[in-house]
Design a protein that fits this description.
There is one protein chain. This protein has 422 residues and is an alpha/beta fold. It has two domains: 286 residues, Vaccinia Virus protein VP39 (Rossmann fold), CATH 3.40.50; 108 residues, no CATH class. 26% of the residues lie in helices and 19% in strands. The chain contains twelve helices and 15 strands. The strands form three sheets. Strands 3-2-1-4-5-7-6-9-10-8 form a ten-stranded mixed beta sheet, with helices on both faces. The longest helix has 13 residues. Bound molecules: S-adenosylmethionine. S-adenosylmethionine (SAM) binds next to helix 1.
């Protein structure tokens, strides 16, 4: 087993969910991973929007001299500067990050001079650029589960492009949609985790999905030999852009899968978990410590009830003039403390009534929103992690963007255990 820590680059670092998962808090004695470079930049780049960056700096206690190791700049520009030799991105073993789901289509066939050309501003192609520059041994990515299905006009096309480009760089890939609540965490949050290994031994893809994979070791599933489907991904992302998924109503990529050398096996999985299950109620703080602005007064209640309720509203399309009935079902109001919470979103903060913000009732019978410390707990962050001088709205924004820390923490434990054993 290798003694030196696994060197990590953390992209789209936000308030440091991956770092916390892998390295632990600065005070922790956790060993095994060391973040050697990180990048975070909140569009459009104004100073006032860089609150996640400031939180990260403060929480991980960077000295000004280390600032080159934590770059607050659009990733595309940071990579341009690295390629121009202005600074160096250190060698690393693991590249990780949670990135936006965008259109990954490419503009040019592989046979043309410079290979793959992704659209400008599409962050997957920046990740890809860094992978080609540094060729890390492992990659761990997180995204919304919609990434496996998008775009609607060509189901699964974007993920196929991603798989093809990773296979082209010699990576074998595992993926899984993990709903945190299925493994006992207090939030229903479905995200796809993508784990990649370079220069690995030959994989039995079905076994990798069922039990021998990094993801299946960390998050076991009910294993059986049924339900697998197989495909071979095109080597040319341009052809995938043109052809993949046309006419498909559903994506061919199921909740779990593995790929080696362009051959893909995928399957719909059932989580296997018998442990304790945390609920929204388990993370609620005592109402006596909740500031008054989080309570919803009687006059405001009807607006919340309307937005949460089921409705059918006549609407007209501004451009086409087409008239239609917009309808949506009712949501639980207030949220049940006996269930895991719904997914927290970036708009969770602020007083205004909303369909998606969480609302609970207190023992004294009042309605209230969740305080930032509760949002932090739902994401597995230490209480008060984002309490570094930013507004409650921005604290909620950061938590809506972040991840359930326990998920990459468990994946990291398996990666660490296996590292050096090959
Ligand atoms: C899904 S969030 C990841 C949050 C992070 N995992 C955490 O624990 O807080 C994506 C992050 O990417 C950042 N981001 C968006 N565009 C970026 C760009 N062009 N360059 C660098 N970071 C960017 C956003 O500000 C956001 O913090």
């Amino acid at each position: 087993m290798s003694e030196s820590p696994i060197r990590v680059v953390e992209l789209f670092a936000g308030v440091g969910g991956f770092r916390l998962a892998l390295e632990g808090k600065p005070s922790s004695k956790k060993k095994g991973f060391k973040i050697v470079w990180a990048n975070q930049w909140e569009p459009p780049g104004t100073e006032g929007r860089q609150f996640a960056y400031r939180c990260y700096l403060q929480r991980f206690g960077h000295e000004p001299a280390e600032i080159d190791a934590y770059v607050n700049m659009d990733l595309a520009m940071a990579l341009d500067l690295a390629q121009e030799g202005v600074w160096e991105i250190p060698e690393h073993d693991l590249l990780c990050g949670g990135f936006p789901c965008q259109d990954y289509s490419v503009a040019r066939p592989l046979s043309q001079a410079d290979g793959i050309e992704g659209k400008k501003g599409v962050l997957w192609w920046e990740i890809y650029r860094l992978i080609t520059m540094k060729e890390p041994q492992y990659i761990l990515l997180e995204n919304v589960d919609r990434m496996l299905k998008s775009p609607a006009s060509q189901r699964g096309r974007d993920f196929a492009i991603m798989l093809s480009s990773l296979a082209g760089l010699g990576y074998s890939v595992e993926w899984r949609v993990i709903n945190a609540a299925d493994y006992g965490f207090p939030q229903r949050r479905r995200r796809v985790y993508i784990y990649c290994e370079r220069l690995t031994s030959k994989w039995d893809l079905k076994e990798r999905i069922n039990s021998s994979g990094v993801i299946s070791e960390a998050f076991p599933i009910v294993t059986d030999d049924e339900g697998f489907s197989e495909m071979v991904i095109d080597k040319d992302p341009y052809r995938i852009t043109q052809e993949f998924g046309r006419g498909l109503k559903v994506s061919p990529f199921e909740t779990a899968g593995a790929m080696q050398g362009y051959r893909v096996v995928t399957k719909k999985t059932i989580p296997a978990y018998r442990g304790k299950r945390k609920t929204l109620g388990s993370i609620l703080v005592d109402e006596t410590v909740v500031p008054e602005e989080f309570f919803i007064n009687t006059a405001e209640l009807s607006a919340w009830e309307f937005l949460k309720g089921s409705k059918k509203i006549p609407r007209k399309n501004k451009h086409t003039g087409h008239e239609y009935i917009y309808s949506e079902g009712g949501m639980a109001f207030p949220d049940s403390p006996e269930q895991p919470s719904r997914t927290i979103l970036t708009g969770e903060g602020g007083r205004s009534a909303s369909r998606f913000k969480h609302v609970v009732t207190t023992p004294s019978g009042r309605y209230r929103r969740l305080v930032p410390e509760e949002l932090e707990q739902l994401q597995g962050f230490p209480k008060g992690w984002t309490d570094v001088g930013m507004s409650d709205i921005n604290r909620a924004f950061c938590m809506g963007n972040a991840l359930v820390v326990d998920i990459p923490e468990r994946l990291g434990k398996v990666i660490r255990k296996r590292h050096g054993q090959a």
